[in-house]
């Protein structure tokens, strides 16, 4: 089997996954949407691009008929976003900052009222990572509503996100940040193709000699699993089966156990236990995950982040950390074959997904102006 054929396997798997996602999107029944936004908790500033990306993301679920934003609009940190939200037809609901519990109760009350008054609303979008809204989410789910949470994964809790049908870090919804190579890939994906063709190509090329590639990709996934468990234990959270998957997706939104050849999440966990990466204790819904032993050697993820930080430091010169255009940093790193191999093995589809993973770990900071994304070494 040729080396070129081996290298093409991850690309084919990604195409299959994306085609399945497109199929689900195109066949999803549309309904009416209500947005409840806790601006104090998720504040993108005056970034109009986020609003546009947010609206585009929600268009796949139906039409927005209610959009409400809750905050103390007299406070400077949120005052500058008020006019932007008004332009996009959000109803601004004022809640004094001194009354935190009152703000939570206002959003909860409005949410319950909307569910009862407008049964045509099928999807509720909560823009918050505040776990105080668990009761609202549970109540809406009991009434058959779909729940989508848009949050800041740096502050959100996995035991809150697990209640949602889907969750997104607000940064991933900002448009732009696509490199030239990735733009070419998008054009290629728009060409007529079918899942059957991709599957046939995969079966022809991946019959022999793919074991080493699969092992590398799975080992990287196991390292991510270990990192998720360690983080949760540091935060005093019990790493249950479901919560660990949420935390893992917070660390890498592109993670998909099916792309690694596993039938489901349980199969992935069973394989990790057989590989002596973790062990599982407890019974039924109380299964708890723990690591067998911490990693001693640097993981592929560690190496990729080190290369990113080294490149940012090189671009900074002798000065302090400063922002650099994402496309420029991507272009410099893509010149290094070692980085390209690491990125592919780690499963990141786009460079900005890799940057987001670094930001979640507080290694870098990002900013967006229009469609231009920039990144710098973290100074926090």
Give a structural overview.
- It contains 15 helices and 11 strands.
- The protein is an alpha/beta fold.
- It folds into 3 domains: 154 residues, Rossmann fold (3-Layer(aba) Sandwich), CATH 3.40.50; 87 residues, Nucleotidyltransferase, domain 5 (2-Layer Sandwich); 78 residues, Arc Repressor Mutant, subunit A.
- Strands 3-2-1-4-5-6 form a 6-stranded parallel beta sheet, sandwiched between helices. The protein has a 3-stranded antiparallel beta sheet with strand order 9-11-10. A two-stranded antiparallel sheet has the order 7-8.
- Helix 5 links the parallel strand 4 and strand 5.
Strand order of the largest sheet: 3-2-1-4-5-6
Number of strands: 11
CATH class of the largest domain: Alpha Beta
- Largest sheet data: 6 strands, parallel
Question: CATH superfamily of the largest domain, called what?
Answer: 5'-nuclease
**H/E topology pattern:** HEHEHEHEHEHEHHHHHEEHEHHHEE
Instruction: Summarize model confidence as the mean pLDDT.
Output: 84
Distance between the termini: 48 Å
Give the low-pLDDT segments.
Answer: 24-28, 184-209
The portion of residues assigned to helices is: 40-55%
> What name does the CATH topology of the largest domain carry?
Rossmann fold
- What sort of overall outline do the alpha carbons produce when their principal axes are compared? globular
Strand content: 15-25%
Structure classification: alpha/beta
């Amino acid at each position: 089997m040729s080396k070129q054929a081996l290298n093409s396997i991850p690309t084919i798997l990604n195409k299959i996954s994306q085609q399945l996602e497109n199929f689900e999107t195109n066949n999803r029944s549309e309904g009416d949407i209500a947005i409840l936004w806790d601006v104090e908790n998720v504040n993108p500033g005056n970034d109009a691009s986020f609003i546009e990306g947010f609206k585009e993301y929600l268009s796949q679920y139906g039409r927005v008929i209610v959009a409400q934003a809750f905050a103390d609009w007299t406070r400077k940190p949120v005052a500058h976003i008020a006019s932007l939200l008004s332009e996009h037809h959000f109803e601004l609901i004022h809640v004094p900052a001194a009354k935190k519990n009152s703000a939570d109760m206002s959003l909860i009350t409005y949410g319950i009222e909307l569910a009862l008054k407008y049964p045509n609303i099928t999807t509720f979008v909560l823009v918050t990572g505040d776990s105080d809204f668990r009761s609202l989410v549970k109540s809406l789910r009991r009434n058959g509503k779909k729940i989508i949470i848009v949050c800041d994964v740096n502050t959100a809790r996995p035991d809150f996100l697990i209640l949602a049908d889907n969750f997104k870090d607000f940064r991933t919804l900002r448009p732009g940040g696509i490199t030239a190579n990735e733009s070419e890939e998008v054009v290629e994906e728009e060409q007529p193709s079918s899942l059957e063709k991709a599957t046939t190509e995969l079966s022809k090329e991946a019959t022999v000699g793919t074991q080493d590639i699969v092992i590398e990709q799975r080992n990287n996934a196991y390292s991510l699993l270990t990192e998720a468990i360690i983080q949760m234990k540091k935060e005093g959270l019990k790493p249950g089966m479901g919560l660990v998957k949420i935390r893992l997706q917070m660390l890498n939104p592109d993670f998909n156990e099916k792309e690694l050849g596993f039938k489901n999440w349980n199969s992935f966990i069973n394989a990790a236990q057989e590989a002596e990466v973790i062990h599982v204790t407890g019974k039924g819904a109380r299964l708890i995950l723990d690591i067998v032993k911490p990693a001693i050697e640097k993981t592929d993820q560690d190496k990729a982040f080190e290369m990113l930080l080294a490149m940012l430091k090189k671009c900074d010169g002798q000065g302090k950390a400063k922002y650099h255009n994402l496309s420029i940093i991507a272009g410099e790193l893509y010149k290094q074959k070692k980085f390209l191999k690491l990125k592919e093995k780690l499963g990141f589809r786009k460079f900005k997904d890799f940057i987001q993973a670094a930001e979640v770990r507080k290694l870098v900071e990002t900013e967006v102006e229009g469609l231009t994304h920039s990144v710098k070494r973290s100074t926090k």
